[in-house]
Write a structure and sequence with these properties.
binds zinc ion; binds calcium ion; DNA polymerase, domain 1; Beta Polymerase, domain 3; 587 residues; seven-stranded parallel sheet; Beta Polymerase, domain 2; 17 strands; 4 domains; binds 2'-deoxyguanosine-5'-triphosphate; five-stranded mixed sheet
Length: 587
């Protein structure tokens, strides 16, 4: 059974989309979108709340509370049903194209059965839409252009693509004389999983030279807006960039403002107003006299509002203001806290680098331990056998301790692990006798994504109950923008993890970031442990933990909740799970 909060959240998100597509008020759509997020993330089960309790959920007023009640009583909401009958799901996907209105999208769907952007592009290449009334070759071209827009600047890009470009821009701008401070702001600084546009902030007395250098960067394809304080450009990476240059004395206020999120800023401005102050990107002012109180650093701005400095990944109005006022912000896990990586591949299966290179690179990162976890035989493309696995183990044992930073008494420890495949019934690749020989087993779902919710849930819970499974790899299997998360009862899975001593992975690959931030927030209420892993298939991927840690921070995780920040002895104790020592082979 789905968690009622999730059902209601999905319903409201759909309602918001339907409102936009049918040309309803943008304001109304936003209200429902916000309610969807609030209900989805709310700690109490909505089906246990009365009307008054429902209205205590942020963003839920009388009319939304009534719709929740209607849904819980009848299983549907008349207002949503009414809009649904007007718009098929396929049409909703098409209207994401900026040059395609709902009417034409409806026609394409009704007449040609086109229900996705990809199908539409294929149809245009086959010159099919021009046969319809109201369409011609010109319309087709216009639509294609819209698809391009959607795929470039209109679309959001993955965090790593944006981060790489932003790092490059920041490095270039630091070379310009007069550049006093520079950093990225916006969603990138908050480490959101996808980025709409890059925001860069620079402090300088004179903005001219910086703006000029910025517009002349080689990857800039178009200058959208050019002014003394803000310049916006499009780039050949399919991503727009805003540069703002502020005087050094406004740095803190500007950084606070342009880091966002909008929802967080609304709350900080409210706090200011309650104290007779006014907060803007220029500073924190006395509302009456207009006198500037503070603006130079973020710390000063937050302090004057009665708050500790709030780490950017928390700035989403998910309780960080309340926690800050009580001085109860979590002490977030940092990338430097990681002592090792527990999910990596070598060229024995689908990795690119041999074991030695992976170990050397991990040691260079300063890790105290590294687990090698190549795929088991159930992913048959990987051609794994017991013999090959045991041969790798021998090599791992031989290299154990051989790599390490100079000055360390002992080199990095190598753990011999495996990434097991969780089969359709929750079974894994090998019998327990063989699994007992591994130091660590990651287990992940790689197929049969479309099972029923009950079957998927049971399947993963069964994997948790296996005494040799230590970590559930990429738990929801989502691929951002490509594959939806598994439809499983996450709360049941989280509870099973907590009960059995199984950690949940936060897979750091920028395509995955799985678990994602909201799921982490939910999982930690079950007191689950997490592993922030790279799932590296190449040496360079080891550094992706930057994104995994960012995601963990967005999920409010502290160091103690992440098993690969622990010292090796504590980690090994955790990995023994509930196993009786008698079944364990000596390694
Ligand atoms: P994105 O670009 O969609 O990934 O998300 P953000 O958060 O980077 O949003 P963006 O680029 O539109 O704006 C950057 C920040 O500037 C945003 O996080 C907060 C601030 N900001 C922009 N517009 C507004 C506004 O209308 N009100 C408030 N309070 N803040 C704003
Ligand atoms: Ca942005
Ligand atoms: Ca922006
Ligand atoms: Zn893997």
């Amino acid at each position: 059974m789905a968690r009622p909060n999730d059902e209601v959240a999905a319903l409201f998100q759909e309602y918001a989309d339907l409102i936009s597509i049918t040309g309803g008020e943008a304001y109304k759509a936003r209200v429902y979108e916000k309610a969807a997020r609030a209900v989805g993330g709310y700690h109490a089960d909505v089906s246990t709340l009365d009307a008054k309790g429902l209205r205590e959920i942020p963003g839920v007023g009388r009319s939304i509370a009534e719709k929740i009640d209607e849904y819980l009583r009848t299983g549907s909401v008349a207002a949503v049903d009414e809009l649904r009958t007007r718009i098929p799901a396929g049409v909703r996907r098409l209207t994401a194209i900026p040059t395609l209105g709902p009417k034409k999208a409806m026609a394409l769907y009704d007449e040609l059965g086109i229900a996705s952007v990809e199908e539409l592009v294929d149809a245009i290449h086959a010159e099919k839409p021009r046969e319809l009334k109201g369409f011609g070759p010109k319309t087709e071209q216009k639509i294609l252009h819209g698809v391009e827009l959607l795929r470039s600047s209109g679309d959001r890009v993955l965090l790593d693509v944006a981060m790489d470009l932003a790092d490059e821009i920041v490095a270039e701008l630091s070379k310009v004389s007069g550049c006093r401070r520079r950093t990225c702001a916006g969603s990138l600084r908050r480490m959101r999983e996808t980025i709409g546009d890059i925001d860069i902030l620079v402090a300088a007395e004179k903005s001219g030279p910086l703006m000029k250098a910025f517009t002349e960067l080689p990857f800039v394809t178009e200058v959208i807006a050019h002014g003394p304080s803000k310049t916006s450009v499009r780039t050949d990476r399919g991503l727009a960039v805003d540069l703002r240059v502020v005087p050094p004395e406004s740095w803190g206020a500007a950084l606070q403002y342009f880091t966002g999120s909008k929802a967080h800023n609304i709350r900080t401005r409210e706090l200011a107003v309650h104290q007779g102050l006014k907060l803007s990107e220029y500073g924190l002012f006395d509302a009456e006299s207009g006198e500037r109180i503070v603006s130079e650093t973020e710390e000063e701005v937050y302090a004057r509002l009665g708050l500790p400095w709030i780490p950017p990944p928390l700035r989403e109005d998910r309780g960080e203001i309340e926690a800050g006022l009580r001085d109860e912000l979590p002490d977030l896990v940092q990338e430097s806290d990681l002592r090792g990586d527990l999910h990596t591949h070598t060229d024995l299966t689908d990795g690119l680098a041999p074991l030695e290179e992976m170990a050397e690179a991990a040691a260079a990162r300063g890790y105290a331990y590294l687990a090698i976890t190549d795929h088991g035989p159930d992913l048959y493309m990987q051609r794994m056998t017991e013999e090959r696995m045991l041969a790798q183990r021998e090599q791992v044992r031989k290299l154990d301790g051989a790599y390490g930073k100079r000055g360390r008494r002992r080199g990095m420890r190598l753990l011999h692990g495996v990434e097991l495949n969780i089969g359709p019934d929750g079974e894994v690749d090998w019998p327990e006798e063989f699994l007992a020989g591994f130091d660590l087993c990651v287990a992940s779902v790689h197929s049969h994504f479309d099972q029923s919710r009950a079957a998927l849930t049971r399947r993963i819970v069964r994997a948790c109950e296996n005494p040799y499974v230590n970590v559930i790899g990429h738990p929801t299997t989502r691929l951002i923008g490509k594959r939806s998360p598994l439809d499983a009862d996450l709360d049941e899975i989280f509870a099973a993890c907590a009960r059995t001593g199984t950690a949940l992975e936060i897979n750091s690959h920028p395509d995955r970031l799985d678990l994602r931030d909201e799921d982490i927030l939910r999982a930690r209420r079950h007191r689950v442990r997490f592993a922030v892993d790279s799932d590296a298939h190449a040496v360079l991927h080891l550094a992706n933990t930057r994104y995994g840690v960012g995601t963990a921070q967005r999920g409010w995780l502290t160091k103690d909740e992440v098993i690969n920040t622990w010292p090796e002895t504590r980690l090994r104790r955790f990995l023994r799970k509930g196993r009786s020592s008698g079944t364990r082979r000596p390694s």
